[in-house]
Design a protein that fits this description.
- The chain is α/β, with parallel strands linked by helices.
- The chain has a domain at 34-72.
- The chain is built from 4 helices and 24 strands.
- The chain has helices spanning 2-19, 59-64, 80-88, 328-331; strands at 36-43, 48-55, 68-69, 74-76, 98-100, 133-135, 154-156, 164-166, 175-177, 185-187, 196-198, 206-208, 217-219, 227-229, 240-242, 250-252, 257-262, 271-273, 278-283, 291-293, 310-312, 321-323, 334-336, 342-344.
- The strands form 7 sheets. Strands 6-7-9-11-13-15-17-19-21-23 form a 10-stranded parallel beta sheet, with no helix packed on it. Strands 2-1-3 form a 3-stranded antiparallel beta sheet.
- A hairpin with a 4-residue loop joins strand 1 (36-43) and strand 2 (48-55).
- The longest helix is centred in the first third of the chain and has 18 residues, at 2-19.
- The protein is elongated.
- Mean pLDDT is 86; it is low at 1-31 and 300-308.
- Keywords: Leucine-rich repeat, Repeat.
- This is Leucine-rich repeat domain-containing protein.
- It comes from Namhaeicola litoreus.
- InterPro entries: CDIRP (IPR052574), LRR_dom_sf (IPR032675).
Amino acid sequence: MKKYFYLLTLSIFLFGSCEKEDDPIIDLSAEKQLPKIEVCHYDSDTDTWKTLSISENALNAHLKHGDKLGRCGYTYVPDDAFEQALIDFGYDDFLDNYVLTSNIADIKCFPKHLNNLGIADLTGIEDFKNLQILRVINNNIKSIDLSKNTMLKELYINNNRLQSLNLIKNKALRIVSCPKNELIDLNVTWLPELKEILFYDNSIKMVDLRKSNKLNIIVGYNNKLETILLPEEGLSGNASINLSYNLFRTFEAHGLSASGLSISNNPQLESVDISGCTIGNFSVNNCNLSYLNLRDIAGSFDPEVWRFAFLYTANNPNLTCISIDQNFFTQIRSYNIDPWTTFSEDCGY
């Protein structure tokens, strides 16, 4: 009897346990893993490179030790629009975030430009070691690292979303065009081959061009420029400079040669000294000038090239005197100044 009672009790217990709600099952093997990323890792023991899959939070440590982002022998291209362009050009086969590095290492310029493609990330451009011309106008690029592209001669990156652009490693650059971004910082120091630079419609405060003695075009209007350091050896005689609509308080240049110089519409600009320069057209309208030094200024350019020399200083309410020398009127052909402004060899300043 006890035996039957025991079996009956056990059956009831088992049956009752099936009627209860199932307890949650914890599958440790399915536990969420940290995101993985591939790197090409150098193994010093075997003196070989091999692909490793690591967690994202270990990436910086691997890069500091010389590892490379992406699979060995491949270039990591995370932006689908950029990779699709490489596929269209015949450098890649399908979208997988990777392109064979040997397929791109010798490219000097793309068969077509990369304009208007919706590219947001140019990661991978660093492996285009021989690239000389890059056009990526009208995209959504926020940052770019071109420090490995030392063969680059022409860069056109207009109308993107860049906040900073560092080109200090790109010594071969001849043309830099980066207008209509969100640039605050532009580093173009030590670019000896630079001939043209266009950076208008940004928010740049300072530009150093002292070592770019081959420049003949500088277009930087509509920024927040307070300082610009012009080439130490002057500019070529046909140089054109437009620095209007900025925040200069003073502007000084000596030995400058230019067909045109415009620093108009700088509402805080109080002092300008371009004595000793050779200028074709000079415009400094709509400023707040009280000091303008044009002594020893020359305009003896080839008349076949320039119809020299025009001076515009209108709408400067505090400019009562322009400092000149005795030869000034042999240089100037025409000028437009305010009625209260005069020319003098002795302005008292």
